[in-house]
Design brief:
- The chain is of the alpha/beta class.
- The protein has three domains: 269 residues, no CATH class; 87 residues; 117 residues, no CATH class.
- Strand 1 and strand 2 form a beta hairpin.
- The longest helix has 27 residues.
- The protein starts with a helix and ends with a strand.
- It holds the Pfam family PMT_2.
- It is a multi-pass membrane protein.
- It is found in: Cell membrane.
- InterPro entries: LipidA_mod_glycosyltrf_83 (IPR050297), RgtA/B/C-like (IPR038731).
Length: 545
């Protein structure tokens, strides 16, 4: 039975890998986060400066560099393209599934539960969303899971003391991925584990050396850049840490209850089983209590923080997946049936929605023949597997149905994003038009009053950011070594810069991107005069001569 579960898990990983890498490069980078990470990593490779991340030629110290390094390695292997940028994102999700499997084995000594927990984790909507968007969150979660995995090996004495050093090493790399937030997830898990299992902390030479290893790895980049620019110390401590916790920063302030609907969404349709059975699960084992206490602590803490984002709690979702399986195991056939019907309804509605959008012309929404054909084929496979395997009244069947449903979403969704780039805020069609419209060697592209990171990724044309009223175009230039950045950042609220902008449009082939809802402001009517041609790209108008 154990060998069968191991073989099933390997088959599951293979299917997930095929799902994740299929059509991975079919859609362009989405603004703003993914495009920003992709462009910073590209500039890192081009400049050879792996110490100081740059975005459009301006130093960008918002995050430590591990996510950029991994993306840069992807570029080195596959070239400057979407597949190279997203490659390690998919690989790390596969690592997460393996780590969840191993952690459940250590906590519960149950290979079947380990397999189902990993599969259930794959059906968490927040994981799928994070995996299709290049940010730090997938990488951070992987390093946290790796750290927990090796800490459990050490604390349960299943393997040697070297696991303690790997724990501290993973903590250091996680710190270099997203900073101090790593402590919340790792320390809460280890402290709560010790309390529940009555494991006293013993300060040994290995603990001291391990912590020194963490300090060396976790602080390496910070120390190097602070030695070069001492003013960064205050920036890291206050603006990037304290302000995010205590103040409204980066327009990410949300109400206290922000994560409640998110958790309900993450749990759908499993929420049908969770609410009536969580009390029973709570009384089952120390491992269940460990997970429940951790989830409660993490959600409450992040709810208190002023700055909130959906993916901030991603490193705790694996624990939710395990509890879901534990609740499903003791759920009644009626509840299992309800969840199974929910997945049937969700899948059927998705297929019907694709059919409607294909035959009814809705502006700015396109369902291609290829996408519809693929959806119908996958739906046929879903129905066939349901008839053969998933009609059984058992909880593994609903998890398998969830995996199929999200597999359909991931594969067909990639084609949807390819054909509806305006909906996902991708500028690839615009840049493709610019590249094809003229082969003039002196083309200039201007983004008016909006920070767009992906345009220079797709074109060799000179790219300018025109800063007027929108906050995204206000760049942090206090760390620049010189004023060379001013050549491509036009602060047109200054009369001299507005004049220079107008003069730049007098020569060569020029393209100006203006957000449609803002239009061309009165002081800059010369854009329409000097660039008489225009093309509508949904949310944007492209003016050109």
């Amino acid at each position: 039975m154990k060998q069968e579960n191991s073989r099933l898990f390997l088959f599951f990983l293979l299917v997930v890998a095929v799902t994740l890498f299929t059509f991975l490069d079919s859609w362009g980078f989405t603004e703003t986060s993914e495009a920003r990470y992709a462009e910073i990593s590209k500039e890192m490779v081009e400049t050879g400066d792996y110490l100081n991340p740059q975005l459009l030629g301006i130093y960008h110290y918002h995050k430590p560099p591990v996510a950029y390094y991994l993306t840069a390695i992807g570029y080195k292997i596959f070239g400057f393209n979407e597949f190279g940028a997203r490659f390690f994102l998919q690989l790390f999700l596969l690592f997460q599934l393996i780590l969840v499997y191993k952690i459940v084995e250590y906590l519960y000594n149950d290979k079947k539960l380990a397999l189902l927990s990993a599969a259930c984790y794959f059906t968490m909507p927040i994981l799928v969303m994070a995996n299709r968007n290049l940010t730090t969150d997938i990488f951070l979660t992987t390093f946290i899971l790796a750290a927990i995995n090796h800490w459990l090996l050490y604390i349960t004495r299943r393997s040697g003391t070297w696991n303690l050093y790997v724990y501290y090493l993973m903590m250091g790399i996680a710190f270099e991925t997203k900073g101090p937030v790593v402590f919340i997830f790792l320390w809460s898990f280890t402290i709560i584990y010790r309390i529940i299992h009555k494991e006293k902390f013993k300060l040994t030479i290995h603990q001291v050396l391990g912590f020194l290893l963490f300090l060396m790895v976790g602080s390496a980049w910070y120390v190097l850049v602070i030695l070069e620019k001492p003013e960064l110390l205050d920036y890291f401590l206050f603006k990037q840490t304290v302000n995010r916790i205590a103040n409204k920063s980066f327009h990410r302030d949300q109400p206290f209850w922000f994560y409640i609907p998110i958790l309900i969404g993450v749990l759908f349709p499993y929420v049908i089983a969770i609410f009536p059975k969580i009390k029973n699960v709570f009384q089952k084992s120390k491992s269940d209590k460990l997970l429940i206490y951790n989830i409660i602590f993490i959600v409450l803490l992040f709810s208190i923080f002023k700055t909130k984002r959906i993916f901030y709690v991603l490193p705790s979702v694996w624990m939710i997946a395990i509890l879901v399986v534990r609740c499903l195991k003791i759920s009644s056939p009626k509840i299992i049936k309800s969840i199974r019907i929910s997945y049937i309804v969700l899948t059927t509605l998705y297929v019907i929605g694709c059919l409607i959008l294909f035959f009814i012309n809705i502006e700015n929404i396109t369902i291609s023949v290829m996408q519809l054909t693929l959806v119908l084929i996958l739906f046929g496979i879903f129905i066939a597997l349901y008839q053969k395997y998933f009609r059984k009244q058992n909880y593994p069947s609903v998890i398998a149905m969830g995996c199929l449903f999200f597999g359909i979403l991931i594969i067909s969704g990639s084609l949807f994003m390819k054909n509806n780039r305006d909906l996902i805020n991708s500028f690839k069609p615009i840049v493709t038009f610019i590249n094809n419209e003229s082969d003039a060697p002196n083309k200039k592209v201007f983004a008016f009053d909006y920070l767009i990171s992906s345009v220079p990724f797709y074109t060799d044309s000179e790219f300018y950011t025109v800063n007027y009223l929108h906050d995204t175009t206000v760049r942090e230039v206090q760390f620049q070594d010189d004023e060379q950045y001013k050549e491509y950042l036009l602060n047109v609220y200054l009369k001299s810069e507005a004049t220079r902008f107008e003069e730049l449009l007098n020569s060569g082939k020029n393209y100006v991107l203006v957000k449609k809802k803002f239009g061309v402001y009165k002081p800059f009517q010369f854009i329409e005069e000097k660039l008489p041609n225009k093309k509508d790209f949904g949310k944007w108008i492209l003016y050109y001569n």
